Amino acid sequence: MLLQTAxxxxxxLSMGVTISVGEKIGMRKPRxxxxxxxxxxxxxxxxxxxxxxxxxxxxxxxAGLLHAPEExxxxxxxxxxxxxxxxxxxxxxxxxxxxxxxxxxxxxxxxTVSIACVINIVGDLVLxxxxxxxxxxxALATVAAQTFSVLISFVIIRRKRALPFEFSRKFICFDxxxxxxx
Length: 182
Description:
The protein is an all-alpha fold. The chain has one domain. It has helices at 2-26, 30-57, 59-65, 73-85, 87-102, 107-130, 134-159, 176-181.
């Protein structure tokens, strides 16, 4: 439940980026769309650092707050820490998905998440059922699937020929106007 809640918060924030990017593209303001993406990158980077620190550093406390049974406490802590270590990929996937949806492409996020689901299932079968790694194996499979999904999304967006927004590294900053809207 803890990780689902964190993911849902990230998903909710990503909707703001989707709306902001889509709105700027619809207004034929490609530079402002790129600035909204850059501002989103900054916002999500901060959130990823906080989320990683909280989940990795506070895994024991969080497992206690979740009332993890004593016999599963160690595995719960390991699961939270491993998934927490992959927070960057949860956040990055959601940001990339928001950009795709903002430019009117909902197919690519669907395909990449579908691939991630297959990788996660195969990873669970291999690591949990095959190697008997328990919760740690399930967490590793999840992080590996998310990582792969981010890599696929990044490659696809880099290969798109005609993106409807301008983007530059200098856009990666907190822009008050874009941050409020995202």
